[in-house]
Design brief:
This protein is 8% helix and 54% strand. It is mostly beta strands and 309 residues long. The chain folds into three domains: 100 residues, Immunoglobulin-like (Sandwich), CATH 2.60.40; 95 residues, Immunoglobulin-like; 72 residues, Immunoglobulin-like, CATH 2.60.40.10. A hairpin with a 2-residue loop joins strand 22 and strand 23.
Length: 309
């Protein structure tokens, strides 16, 4: 009898192996009890925003009693979300606030939902990772061009281009004098933001404006704004607003504009010239005059004080 024991043991092992293989194959052919899985990919439990929780949603083929847990990369349970709760066939939605069973914030990293179906005696780890991200992104301005622009619609220096770089893919906004004016679509780690010097379709007045960038990452973490850069919004400007000269004498004033030509008027005289240094002869009669330089509907003025020769 003893000499048949090894053979019997081998046969038993072969039968057990065959049964296990058959069972495994049958599981492969059996439809999953869970379908239509949708899980939040990234969230920040500390952002106090719309993305401060993770949603775990799926559909059950059959009613069952569920346990739903959050596990870390090593399979350790971090949070028991649902314990022995009855669900009907159909949709199931569970929310995780990013805390562990001790009510402390989970460490930054990747986690997975695990679902136990009591009646079907199956445990399924959903293939959808959930990343907890609590690190705010950073952003810096890499360039601002040009530093002086005029949004007058002539296609010459009509906009400012602000280049940026972030520490991770994020959504960037442009702030003008600390007020958000442009929100860039998409989430990138580098790129540019354009500003046309307008608010609600209206061009802003001439002046110096401070530009800075804000940033929000995919999880909802808000980063610290970048340092600011100053730009000059101007249509036409004069180098001096008060000019003192003698009757009949020549004087010069700098005209800054990006238009091809500008119109000027001094007393009864007028003309057209290119931006740059404007050279004129003072009126022959002493007095106070106004030099007006115009580009489209925009103008700059300077007082011309003419003294006796």
């Amino acid at each position: 009898m003893a000499r048949y024991a090894p053979a019997a043991l081998v046969a038993a092992l072969l039968v057990a192996t065959a049964l296990a293989f058959a069972y495994t194959e049958s599981l492969k052919l059996t439809p999953s009890p869970i379908l239509g899985t949708k899980v939040t990919k990234t969230f920040s439990p500390v952002c106090d925003c719309d993305t401060d929780t993770a949603v775990i949603a799926f559909r059950l083929r059959q009613p069952d009693r569920l346990d739903v847990e959050i596990i870390d990369g090593g399979g350790t349970i971090v949070r028991h979300l649902i314990e022995r709760q009855e669900y009907r066939r159909g949709p199931v939605q569970i929310v995780w606030n990013g805390r562990d069973d001790a009510n402390a914030n989970a460490l930054e990293g990747s986690y997975r939902p695990r679902v136990r179906l009591e009646r079907q005696r199956r445990t399924i780890v959903l293939p959808n990772p959930i990343r907890v991200d609590v690190t705010p992104p950073g952003v810096e301005i890499t360039r601002v061009q040009p530093r002086a622009f005029s949004p007058d619609g002539d296609r010459r220096a009509d906009r400012v281009v602000v280049g940026y770089r972030t520490t991770e893919a994020a959504r960037v906004s442009l702030f003008v004098n600390k007020v958000r004016r442009v929100q860039k679509r998409g989430q990138q780690s580098s790129g540019t933001v354009d500003w046309f010097g307008r608010v609600d379709g209206r061009a802003l007045p001439q002046g110096v404006y401070e530009l800075s960038l804000g940033v929000v990452d995919t999880a909802g973490n808000v980063g610290v704004r970048s340092s600011s850069r100053a730009v000059a919004l101007r249509y036409v400007a004069l180098g001096r607003t008060r000019i003192e000269t003698r009757a009949g004498a020549r004087f010069a004033v700098l005209v800054a504009a990006d238009a091809a030509t500008v119109d000027w008027r001094l007393g009864a005289r007028k003309g057209v010239t290119k931006p740059g240094t404007l050279r004129l002869r003072a009126p022959l009669r002493p007095g106070r005059y106004t030099l007006t330089v115009t580009v489209g509907e925009h103008r700059a003025r300077a007082a011309v004080i003419v003294a006796a020769p």
